[in-house]
Specification:
The chain has about 350 residues and is α/β, with parallel strands linked by helices. The chain is about 35% helix and about 20% strand. Helix 9 packs parallel to helix 10 and helix 10 packs across helix 11. Strand 1, helix 1 and strand 2 form a beta-alpha-beta unit. It is built from 12 helices and 14 strands. The chain folds into 2 domains: about 130 residues, Rossmann fold (3-Layer(aba) Sandwich); about 190 residues, Methylesterase CheB, C-terminal domain (Rossmann fold).
Length: about 350
């Protein structure tokens, strides 16, 4: 059984979360806390496998309580936050402080629509519990003494230069945290345009991009319709819109956003990769990392068949091996490495 401790100041939310979580017969709610002080005390006592944590709570907020739980290495924490701009900024602060992942409340701080995200809650609890059992990523980082690179002054986008190669990256569950193992290590002068789809709610994309940009040597921007693609820039797909590319009359790649085709995830990794492949053909580099399901796996096969280079995260480091694992099974991964080596492989692929 996976043991879960719930922290939320709303009695209604605690009741709804308990019902959702225990709908999975392999997950048990061992306790509930109504504020930050309460959850720290109960986490120490119950030693759960996972804590779900509201951001805004009395006495001691979720951010402060999170730091106690993370510093004492009690268990992974999944943040449950409102789908607002303020909620997004606080959520990404929590991720930087050590939270595993997050789920957005679809109806505000006290939401009666939590059933809409029931599957996501259960999936992320399961993934977080697995992380507790397998701390290989954390151990590997400590053994290597890895530090995030000092962020150098970004070079201006090289306007007028043709983009010769494109890196199409997909990541999902665990991604908001693990992407920092990859993108900050890519140099500002890389001779390729980069594209990233991370499954997340629409209101969270601007905050995600802002924080990621601050940690990276390359320029990170939210993909906007009509933008001309430049080398040395990472374009992040907007929540709720597919990221597509089209060629203009001079042969330049231009970003196009759409709500079609219908897909389980919008933006979809598969849709983005297919669009990049159509424009860049054998100059496409596909990268698939941690995430549930198989979004992007089929297109990785197409990229490889077209003569492009494909890189998949290995089971050694993947928090959830679904997306990269499926690509590997289908023969869509030419290179399979742990996440801490993916940036190196991207640089090598661009320079081939």
């Amino acid at each position: 059984m996976i043991k879960v401790l719930i922290a939320d100041d709303s009695a209604l939310m605690r009741k709804m979360l308990k019902q959702i979580i225990e709908s999975d017969p392999e997950i048990q709610v061992v306790g509930a806390a109504r504020d930050g002080e309460d959850v720290v005390i109960k986490a120490r006592e119950y030693r759960p496998d996972v804590v779900t944590m509201d951001v805004n709570m009395p006495k001691q907020d979720g951010i402060t309580a999170l730091q106690y739980i993370v510093n004492e290495e009690i268990c992974p924490v999944v943040m449950v936050s409102s789908l607002t701009q303020e909620g997004a900024m606080t959520t990404f602060e929590a991720l930087e402080l050590g939270a595993f992942d997050f789920v957005g409340k679809p109806g505000g701080t006290v939401s009666s629509d939590m059933k809409k995200v029931a599957a996501e809650i259960i999936d992320k609890i399961r993934a977080a519990a697995q992380l507790k059992k397998n701390r290989v990523v954390g151990r590997e980082r400590m053994a290597r003494g890895q530090r995030r690179p000092v962020v150098k002054k970004k070079v201006a986008p090289r306007s007028g230069q043709k983009v010769t190669k494109a890196v199409a990256m997909g990541i999902s569950t665990g991604g908001p945290k693990m992407i920092y193992e990859v993108v900050p290590l890519i140099p500002a002068d890389i001779k390729a345009a980069l594209f990233l789809v991370q499954h997340m709610p629409p209101n969270f994309t601007p905050a995600y991009v802002k924080r990621l940009n601050g940690a990276c040597q390359i320029e990170v921007v939210e993909a906007r319709a009509g933008i001309k693609v430049e080398p040395g820039v990472l374009y992040v797909g907007s929540g709720g819109r597919h990221l597509n590319l089209v060629k203009n009359s001079t042969g330049d790649a231009i970003i196009r956003l759409s709500s079609k085709p219908d897909h389980l995830f919008i933006p979809s990794v598969s849709v983005m990769m297919q669009s990049v492949l159509q424009v860049f053909e054998d100059r496409t580099i596909g990268v698939l990392m941690t995430g549930m399901g198989n979004d992007g796996a089929d297109t990785m096969v197409k990229i490889r068949q077209a003569g492009g280079i494909t890189i998949a995260e290995s089971e050694e480091s993947a928090i959830v091996f679904g997306m990269p694992g499926d690509a590997i099974k289908r023969g869509g991964a030419e290179i399979v490495v742990p996440i801490w080596n993916i940036a190196r492989e991207i640089i090598r692929a661009v320079n081939r």
